Amino acid sequence: MDAAFKQVEDEQGPVEVLVANAGITKDQLLALMSEEDFASVLDTNLTGAFRVAKRAVKGMMRKRTGRIVLISSVVGMLGSGGQTNYAASKAGLIGFGRSLARELGSRGITVNIVTPGFIETEMTAELPEERQAEIKKNVPLGRYGSTEEIAKTVRFLTSPDAGYITGAVIPVDGGLGMGH
User: Fold this and answer.
1) CA neighbours closer than 13 Å in the CB half-sphere of residue 160
2) Domain containing 44 — which CATH number?
3) Number of domains comprising the chain
4) Quick check: is 86 catalytic?
5) Disulfide: which of 15, 23, 35, 173 matches 74 by Cβ 3.0-4.6 Å?
6) Which of helix, strand or coil describes residue 6?
């Protein structure tokens, strides 16, 4: 991670925008979930965001400007059977991001959280058709979102137009979470 930051800083200067988008799942009912699967999901999804944010904020604080966007999930607010590890990690990002927004706001750094719902990806394409239909039936807009819809939200939050938005949880979920 330090090598990646150093390369960016050497080529482009201090990091001004950080998007923490790492995420894995290792779904299993809690009674059957291994401690390793619980820990590895939290380590990737939550602790990974901590590590990159900690590294990025040093330069942002010196410049007194910056944008951080954490990619959480609607599951972090709604929960999902068989995803206690994933839901905990994504809910943790919300608390982490809001606390960080309070720490860094006076230094001109915004921190926001995007909570995607079901998005058209290789992972969702692998779901059986009947499961996909069931999911879409529960989404008020009746469809999966696109990666481009998430990207446009992130692009807005990292733009000058979002300079007075911090600590916000922005759902991009077709209404599935109803803004929780």
Assistant:
1) 0
2) 3.40.50.720
3) 1
4) yes
5) 173
6) helix
